[in-house]
Amino acid sequence: MRIVLVGPPGAGKGTQAALLAKTLSIPHVSTGDLFRANISQGTELGLAAKSIMESGKLVPDEVTIGMAKDRLAQPDAAGGFLLDGFPRNVAQAAALDEILAEWGIELDGVLDLEVPEDEVVRRIAGRRVCRNDNAHIFHVEYHPPVAEGVCDECGGQLYQRADDAEDKVRVRLEVYHTETEPIIEYYQKQDLVTTISALGTVDEVTRRAIEALRKNETQRKNDDEG
Ligand code: AP5
Ligand code: MG
């Protein structure tokens, strides 16, 4: 399956993507995590992205699209992928369509996670992520680690992302509404979007997501046959 996850900052994309990727046996590709890995490794790309990410704005398309294309070209993504945080504007969505067309493949679905803004703010305020692997995500209240400040998965140190400060979250939400939300309409025109509520426990949301993806897969098969 080739899936795009969309939703506001703090919706739970990273949390769900990690679980869905395991269930569906496809890699979780997060452009945010790729940027953060580049920042901790001190690469040129990381240096270019760092201050922009910390401001809450989007890294320029030419940098982001190239990085996403390189990642999707890796052998483990040949059988499918779960994209988290990419595409993030209509230009990136159009570029992704072009890349996939060049490779003779297409998206199977776009899963839109819907969460009210006050819940998003609560989720981001309590989030802690692992320094070793940004994909290990915790929450001080909703999903606390066994030992405070220590990652359950790998023992790494937990930290609060610089862009999770309240003023940066406001910028990110604004950017989401103006730049990212229009991709939902873009994909609706291709009949790819399923919207689910991302409220409730992590497990409840995962169940809802799997059900939506399976339903979408069956429908696409029926459409192809019919
Ligand atoms: P990115 O890393 O993609 O951040 P984001 O989209 O703002 O989303 P978040 O990672 O903040 O939230 P999430 O939805 O993954 O939620 P999570 O699962 O952690 O991007 C960061 C920056 O990188 C961008 O601002 C930009 O600068 C740059 N960038 C990235 N991609 C780019 C692109 N394509 N183009 C240009 N620039 C790009 O969950 C949040 C919290 O809630 C956690 O604490 C979690 O434990 C908790 N939680 C999750 N689910 C539940 C639940 N059901 N109940 C209770 N708590 C829950
Ligand atoms: Mg994330």
From TrEMBL:
AMP binds at T31, R36, K57, L58, V59, G85, F86, P87, R88, Q92, R161, R172. Its EC number is 2.7.4.3. Residues 127-163 form the Adenylate kinase active site lid domain. It is an enzyme of class 2 (transferase). It is found in: Cytoplasm. It comes from the Bacteria. InterPro entries: Adenyl_kin_sub, Adenylat/UMP-CMP_kin, Adenylat_kinase_CS, Adenylate_kinase_lid-dom, ADK_active_lid_dom_sf, P-loop_NTPase. Belongs to the adenylate kinase family. Monomer. This is Adenylate kinase. It comes from Streptacidiphilus jeojiensis.
